[in-house]
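Hey, resending since the last one bounced:
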Amino acid sequence: MPDIHNLADAVRRAASTRPEAPALVVPAGAGTAERVITWAELDGRVDAVAAGLAALELPAGDHAGAGARIAIGLPNVPEFAVAFFGALRAGLVAVPVNPGYTPRELRQQIADAGAAALVATPAVAARLAEADLRHVYVAGPGDAPAGARPFDELSGGTPPPASTGGDDLAVLLYTSGTAGAPKGAMLTHRALIANHRQLAAVEPAIVRGGDVVLLGLPLFHAFGLNSGLGEVAWHGACGVLVDHFDPRETLAVIARHQVTVLAAVPQMYAAWAGIPDLGERVASVRVAISGAAPLDQTAARRFLDATSKPIFEGYGLTETAPVVATALASPVPKAGSIGRPLPEVEIKLVAGDGAEIARVGPEGLIYEDEYDDDFDDDAGGVPGTDPGEIVVRGPNVFSGYWPDGAGGPDAEGWWPTADVAYADVDGDLFLVDRLAELIIVSGFNVYPHEVELVLAGFPGVTEAAVVGMPSPETGQAVKAYVVAEPGVSEADLMAHCARNLARFKLPAAIAFVPDLPHTATGKVVKGTLGT
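The structure tokens again:
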């Protein structure tokens, strides 16, 4: 297998080895026929767009030596893949943006990235009518704003020879912004490619050349982009594009197209788990993976009971391109565990005072300083090390935040994630919570996720989110936002919590809400609770 230095070369490789094999499939919809694009067709279209982009002679600017930035505001459609790989092949930097964002949010990201061109739906282009963009191309139904041109017109002859790769910036991916304004994570070709190499070394392989992969996660997100579309290109597999998630309709797509790999977020598995014919619908699935948020173990057990297929939980971040660890890397995957680091990835758990608690690699626990036999009583897990912040090192780690690389890895390559975990006696990792969401009550640490798990275990509770609130007596106190069925009372929930949590962890207040705000990949946006 020849070395690949620019991620777009993976499309070229797939086209040379499997030219007539399907690369992307768009299932038939209401009034629309199924679309099938082969690897040869995709590669040819990427070539044409790369040549067209190169002919625009976009200004590169001087930020971090990066090439010109092109924003992509498209849903899960083939044009996204063409624009993305075309930009990389042209030596540009791709900036995927959420097409559901408001004008303010879109303008903020476009301005921050300094994007000079845009490929988007007509609706997104209209929201950016006042943005400083030299070239706007639109794809999809709707009326294009003045000055925009059809995406099909963005084409040329022969693209220039690949001029970027390796340590050159490939993608600016903006963090989900669950706390504070989104920041652009700078991911190089080397980081993106490293994650594919690392995932390919895991046994059993998550994606193989003959696989059919469900691309139902947003392609503007790291999980959908590199772990979905990127993995399909890397292995020359087939991706089935789903833009809007409807549990029953998506299961019909899975069955009709004989999907073999599910890459989904916990909310998708929870929705599927309640459908009666689930086992029959996913009979073709070889492996099911979950990421982006903690997997509810009740939903995981229901899915397993219905399908006889386990869900393998993983852990990653936008800044790590994105996968860091997976239960598939463990000799014996465990319920609730994110498994072990991928090959070439190291993790150390660090205490609040900077002391290293433990170090974990693909082979398991390398070093431990503290062992806590009672930690299972503290957090509902299994005996293991004290919890500490996950600090990660590997070739898939980003270069820092745009534009100057601030907040990136230190001189030794270590980057703190602000996530808290512990390792069990085998070296398998269990997430505890986000460091930024830690609640300190009278000097005692309260991890919101632990309280959320207890609340979610009460019959009739659909979802729960826990945050800290000021308290004159204890510094901070626990407040819970709960989505529940009619009949669930605050008194019942408080009694349930008292039976399962230490006193300092008990909610001081419980608010019942009709729903919780989520990011595109299912994370609860806690910063908006109570506003």
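Residues 370-381 have pLDDT under 50 and may be disordered.

Sorry for the duplicate.
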